[in-house]
């Protein structure tokens, strides 16, 4: 049996920062497992930047202003103790990344360059052209190799094993060989990324963002917090949903309807295109619904115009964005506007974290960080530039927390771990050899369609109840799934089977929590309850899974300094 003191699941920004900080203790044996090669993790797709109140571009900026902007952006659902901890620590994290060799863009004085992002009162987003996540990922990976972190690339998490309320280990599959094995540890950091692929074909997320770690924790008894809050990024490419960074608007891009009008003047007259993401996404969809967009139905869009920025600025600061628009939309932004439409982008909710400084969860031994987790830093709406900051900072502190836990705990029993491993081996054999049944791709398509149609940017009870009915039916159909691939090695059909099961598990939690939240707040916009309701819903949703039953409860939001007020931009 593979045995480690600390195991990290996921090798993105949060996972590798956790592995790095845990591995600084040379007495501990640290492993990091990842479905993909670490530098291919989804943090690498983060384009625009990472927020920290460095004060280089605006000397009046401060962690306190960053704190206030984040709480306001969250529509007052963020836990303010977590936000204050985050904003106070971010400047030193940027200095740490600089020390690791992250090649940040620089201003004329040689300081790390900063640009404006939506919902921010100062330009505090540090960046490296439009490849910020990519360069951070590579730099952290080098540091992990230096610290002798042991990587298991192309391995997938199957389940988290908990016995008597205590973590004992995980069951994982080596995709290359088909081997299913137990891994024993004293502590684990789940940092497996978001689950935007519940909206499968209309998301900015990579194909592997299926919530494996989140679902494993949920199945093991850790509740999900605030899963109803799904962020739709305003500027996905119209035909694919692929992300065009908020840096496009940060650098001064315009959003135009079919009349050539900068329509954000109607919705956020002061911030214009730099309003928060939930507001800009709703504004775009409203323009389309009221007939001021281009095209019809799922093919409708508005335009983002960057031509006035000039070739020099676009080539210096937005080179990757230009390449994406050319490759996937056939449009050169130097010469013409780019068709865009909102796309599912980020999950504000996730694994319930109970301590923002150790990233511990209700199960002893389990820590969680990054998009798979809910601290809650982002509340009901995340500000651009706060996600890369989130993964790096909370990833680091999750690693510190897991390190301390590993020193405190001993290894648990292997009995349930072995039984769970044998059950997964039997499932793999059964699914591989099954000759007929429900088509997994059809299940995936139906899940994506009902989520986009019924649990999208604008929601109401009738549509969401239809989504719940559809998801329940698909969960039943999933039990009789046929994948059509008998291979043992590199059986990607089985990997997809596991991933779709995780997506369905999480989709049901999203829908149930959304139906029950009878208000509009941040990214959760109800047509039938159009106003925010602080009397009944200034609270976090917790969804518990007990066997096949889902149960909801609410816990208070931690408010320290900023009392809820009307959110205007």
TrEMBL record:
Look up and give the membrane topology term.
Peripheral membrane protein
Documented EC number(s): 1.3.5.1
Q: Which PANTHER family does this entry report, sorted A to Z?
A: SUCCINATE DEHYDROGENASE 2 FLAVOPROTEIN SUBUNIT (PTHR11632), SUCCINATE DEHYDROGENASE [UBIQUINONE] FLAVOPROTEIN SUBUNIT, MITOCHONDRIAL (PTHR11632:SF51)
Transmembrane as a keyword? no
GO cellular component term, pick one: plasma membrane
Q: Which family does it belong to?
A: Belongs to the FAD-dependent oxidoreductase 2 family. FRD/SDH subfamily.
Q: Which InterPro entries match?
A: FAD-dep_OxRdtase_2_FAD-bd (IPR003953), FAD/NAD-bd_sf (IPR036188), FRD_SDH_FAD_BS (IPR003952), Fum_R/Succ_DH_flav-like_C_sf (IPR037099), Fum_Rdtase/Succ_DH_flav-like_C (IPR015939), SdhA/FrdA/AprA (IPR030664), Succ_DH/fumarate_Rdtase_cat_sf (IPR027477), Succ_Dhase_FrdA_Gneg (IPR014006)
List the protein's name. succinate dehydrogenase
SUPFAM superfamilies, sorted: FAD/NAD(P)-binding domain, Succinate dehydrogenase/fumarate reductase flavoprotein C-terminal domain, Succinate dehydrogenase/fumarate reductase flavoprotein, catalytic domain
State a single Gene Ontology molecular function.
succinate dehydrogenase (quinone) activity
Cofactor(s) this protein requires: FAD
Q: Which UniProt keywords apply?
A: Electron transport, FAD, Flavoprotein, Membrane, Oxidoreductase, Transport
Q: Where in the cell is it found?
A: Cell membrane
Electron transport in keyword set: yes
Active site, per annotation: 277 (proton acceptor)
- All copies of the FAD-dependent oxidoreductase 2 FAD-binding domain together span 5-388
Q: Which Pfam families match?
A: FAD_binding_2, Succ_DH_flav_C
PROSITE patterns associated with the record: FRD_SDH_FAD_BINDING
Superkingdom of origin organism: Bacteria
